[in-house]
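A favour between colleagues. Tell me how you read the following sequence-structure pair.

===
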Amino acid sequence: MLGKGRRKPDKPMNLNLTSMMDMFTIILVFLIFSFSSQDQNLKLDTDLTLPESSAAIPFKWAINVNVTPTELKVEGNQVAKVKKGKLAGVKIDRSKKRVLPLYNLLKKFKEIESQEKVNPTGDETVISFQADKNLPFETIDLVMKTAAQAGYPNFRFVVMKK
């Protein structure tokens, strides 16, 4: 004789897989939509040799500044020529340690950024800095100080992964 609330031992149990498949489908769709890609389109110049690093920090939106052995570019626009590791043919304010055309261009970017929402992440805009590993520190330092004075004091150095 069976008591109240007990099952018959001879009846097999059935598992409803339909609701479990629905749950897994919802989780899969959620994960696909919440996944964000960490890629950023960087165009490397052919004459640019980046230093190597084993760091693994994800990319965030940034303004691209390239210093190659032949030129200084911001977002693909040439700002100055580089000859023998030094900026050439460009006005440099030695007292304030800044490259005037670079400073003016980055100031324009700052004005556009304050008027319009151009940074998709909403974080403070940084400079994605690509510099040839053979350039002298003085040239890199001058470009970095100019960017900082223009309102971009934070940098991310682009390197090749080891």
